[in-house]
Every structure is written in structure tokens, then in C-alpha cells.
Automatic annotation (TrEMBL):
<dbReference type="InterPro" id="IPR036457">
    <property type="entry name" value="PPM-type-like_dom_sf"/>
</dbReference>
<dbReference type="InterPro" id="IPR015655">
    <property type="entry name" value="PP2C"/>
</dbReference>
<dbReference type="GO" id="GO:0004722">
    <property type="term" value="F:protein serine/threonine phosphatase activity"/>
</dbReference>
<protein>
    <recommendedName>
        <fullName>PPM-type phosphatase domain-containing protein</fullName>
    </recommendedName>
</protein>
<dbReference type="InterPro" id="IPR001932">
    <property type="entry name" value="PPM-type_phosphatase-like_dom"/>
</dbReference>
<dbReference type="Pfam" id="PF13672">
    <property type="entry name" value="PP2C_2"/>
</dbReference>
<keyword id="KW-0378">Hydrolase</keyword>
<feature type="domain" description="PPM-type phosphatase">
    <location>
        <begin position="11"/>
        <end position="247"/>
    </location>
</feature>
Amino acid sequence: MPPSAPSLALRYACASDPGRLRPNNEDAVLLDPALGLAVVADGMGGYNAGEVAARTCCEALRAALADSAGDTLATAGERLQAAVRAANRAVFERALLEPSLRGMATTVVAVLVEGARAAVAHVGDSRLYRLRQGQLAPLTRDHSLVQEHIDAGLLDASLARATDYRNLVTRAVGIAPRVEVDIGTIDLQPGDTLLLCSDGLTDLLTDAQLARLLCQGGPLEEAAQRLVQAANAAGGRDNVSVALVHCAPADEQPAVVAPPRRCGA
């Protein structure tokens, strides 16, 4: 089913902030309603390399999906996986060409909505959640040292936020010529809200707190800002970025599809 004729009306919003301790914002958010795409990337690297990595990843991913939009033989998951791999090559090759960007990399989490389903891709520790009927469920699993230690029984999940290595990822876009991408598919229902976010949000707020903030209602843009403000109020140790995709009944489909939108880097 083409993304131009979904069975759900989608609303998009994003917010991004450097936080209270970081001098610049190395996160990037990209929303493209025409493609049914939402992306959050959390860059890493010295000087301005992190923000370049995140922005390059988002732009290359979107360009690859736009190029493959007419491919009726590939599934949404296949197209999204190929797009993340293209983004990985773009980040890696740019770092090779520009010495000041050597070592840059980024996490990424992306959703591509087609009809009442969405393909999900992620690399690193940026996350995707789905809020349904007041219940928030994580839909991705971090590629991080903390998660590996939790899985091995070496760390209790309740202590994860207090560890010194909580931000060490085991997989990222741009580190090597090829990257392993986790791909999945989820179903969507009217009333669902998807939350994509960088770890600047989830390092400081619990899933229960995120659910309460999302359930307060109001315009979607206000909900995005509310999440960012809550992370900053809890310390704002890192850049914090969120993208929200709300699924409404199809008869609420807007007459005009909004243009692509960016937040952050």
C-alpha cells in the first residue's frame, strides 16, 4: 500500500534541545509526512562531528527512501533497511574525506509507516515506544554495553541509569563500511502514538513517567515540548530529542500533507 494513501491519518511533531550541560546539540530529528517517515539520530564525535553525523544520517536515509518510493517489489522493511545502510555509507565515507570528522558516528531509530503498519529500524540506543490505550511499550532493544550486562545477568535493570558506562553503545552508524540493522514491523491502530527518542530522554525519565507525560493530552507539539522540558528539569545531562507520530482515524486525514521538518542539528 503506498504511503500516499494510508488507512490512518498521521500527525507528526518533534522537539530537540541541547540540554543543560552540553554546549551544542548533536541530535537530529527528521519528519517527512509524505514518505510516512520519522527519524531520530544521536550523533557522537569530537568538536562538531556528532551533529554532522546525525544530520548526514537523516538526510541520506530520507534520500534513499525517496529514491525507492516506486519500488513495488520491496517491502517497507527492506526499503528501510537499505536506507539505513545507505546512511551508514554516507556517514562513513564523509568521515574518510574530511579529517576533522574522523571517528564520527550516530545512533538512529526510524519508522516508515505504510497503511496500518510501520517498518522499524534501529542502530544504537535511541528508542521507539508505542503508547496504546494509556500503556507505553518499548519496541526496540538498546545496542549498548548496559543492555548486554543486563541480558547476561551482570546488572539489574533498575541500576542502569546509575552506571558509568550507560552511554556506551555497541553498534552505531558510520563506524565501519557496513552496519547491522535491526528491522521489525509493528501494527498501528487509531489512537496509537509512536515515540522516537534519544537517550537524553530515557536516561532521565522512566517509562512510567514518559507514559504520564504523553497521556496528559493537548496538541502533539505541546506533548513533544513537555517531554523535553521534563528531561531538562530532571537534570538535562545530555541533548534530548523526540519525534511523535499520532495515528488518528482515516476520516481525519488532513487535506494537505506537510513538508519535511527537521529539529536539532
